[in-house]
Specification:
The chain is an alpha+beta fold and 111 residues long. It contains 4 helices and 5 strands; from the N terminus they run ββααβββαα. The protein starts with 12 loop residues before the first strand and ends with a helix.
Length: 111
């Protein structure tokens, strides 16, 4: 008996392109704007399946896939935010120590 794996469906953040108000660029042009210039295959993957729960918004016009400068910015903002480490909360002793340091500094300044 063979079992087929059921693909997990994850929710991704889909962003749309306003083709009248955004600057359309090809995926090759979008790749050229990025450091380390990702491959066109990577750009297509970002448009199809996404990365870190975000999909690069794109439109398919006359057999070519386009994205926009604005969509690329939104995508990079979302994926960068998802990758940054979570903030560590301050512990009470950290707050007290910093408060004492500030008080000492203010005292030396005469405030």
């Amino acid at each position: 008996m063979h079992f087929r794996a059921i693909p997990r469906i994850k929710e991704v953040q889909q962003m749309d392109i306003d083709i009248e108000n955004e600057t359309l660029i090809t995926l090759a042009e979008a790749a050229a704007r990025l450091p380390r210039r990702p491959s066109i295959c990577t750009m297509h993957r970002w448009c199809q399946t996404g990365v870190r729960d975000a999909v690069l918004a794109s439109v398919f016009i006359c057999g070519r896939r386009y994205t926009s400068v604005e969509a690329l910015r939104r995508f990079l903002a979302v994926t960068s935010r998802a990758r940054s480490p979570p903030l560590t909360p301050l512990m009470p002793h950290d707050i007290t120590r910093r408060g004492l340091e500030v008080e000492r500094l203010l005292a030396t300044k005469g405030v």
